[in-house]
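Section: protein folds

Sequence with per-residue C-alpha cells
===
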Amino acid sequence: MIGWSLVRLRMLSELHRLGTLAEVARSMSYSPSAVSQQLAQLERESGTTLLERVGRRVRLTDAALILVEHADAVLERLERAESHLAHARPETAGTLHVASFQTPLLSIAPPALSLLAERHPALRITITQQELAPSFEGLLTREFDLILGEEFPGVHEELRPGVDRAHLVSDPLLLVLPREGPWSRPARLTDLAAAPWALDLADTPAGAWARSALRTAGFEPEVRFDSPDPLLQAHLVRSGHAVALIPSLIAARTSGGRGCGGSRGTRDGRSTRPSERVAARIRRSGRSAPRSRRRRWPRAHGWPIRRSRPDRSGILTSR
C-alpha cells in the first residue's frame, strides 16, 4: 500500500486547478523548486509519470488526472471529517478566517463579533477586507473559510464548483443628495444629469451597475469622483460636492449625527427597487453552509429612499 502524502496530493490538485508551478507555490507558500521536488517525489511514490514538460511549463498526464480526481475526493472527505469532529466537541473553538468587502465589515461584522464572543468565547475570528474576486482564490486554497461578496441587479454570478452560496440580505442602494444647493431637490432622476457624481470605478461591479442604471434612466452621469470607498462618497455628498448611490447598510453607519448630516432624498417615480445582495460562500467540503437569512424590506414604489428628517442625519434609509 502506498503511503500517500496529503501535501503532495494537494499540490497536484492545485497544479491542475492553477496551471503553473509558480501559482501552486504562491498559493501554498512554498518555493517553486520545493513544489517541483514534492511532485517528483509523488511520481516516485506512485510509480507513474504525472507531469510532462511542454516548453517551460508542465502538463498533467492522463494518469495524473485520474490521481487528481481521487485526491480531490480524499481531501474533501478529510475536511468533512474535520468538520464533523468540530461539531462533536462540547464547545465551538478554533479559528474562522473570513474575507469580506467593506459594507458588511462596517455594519454586520461588529454586532456579529460581539454575539460570537458572548456565545462562543473559544472561537477566534480573523477578518481580511478584500473584494469577492480575489477572495475566491483564498477560499479554494483554504486561506479563508468564509467569504462575503456583493451582487448587483442584472449581474448573475457564475456558480463555481465546490463552493456553496447563501444569500444573507438584500441591501437597497440609496440615492443621496446634499441638503442644500442646486442638486438638493430634483423632481426626477434626470434632473441630476448635470450633477457631479461620486461613483465606484467603472471596471468594478458596483461602478458598472451604477453607470448602467443611470444610462437606463436616460443620461450619462458626469463622474467627478471615482472611488471604491462609499464612506468617501458619503463625505463628498455631505460637503455638497457630489451626489451618489450608496448601500443602505453604509448609510445607516454614516448617519447618527456624524455622518452625512446634510443629505436629502427624493423619489424618481420609477418602478424599480435597486438593491445589492450580500451573500456568503464557503467550500462545499467544509462546514455546513450558513442558513439563508432573508430580511424582508417593505414594499415601496420607485427608488427605496425618502427625505431625511430635518433634525436627524439626512443619509437616506429604506422605508
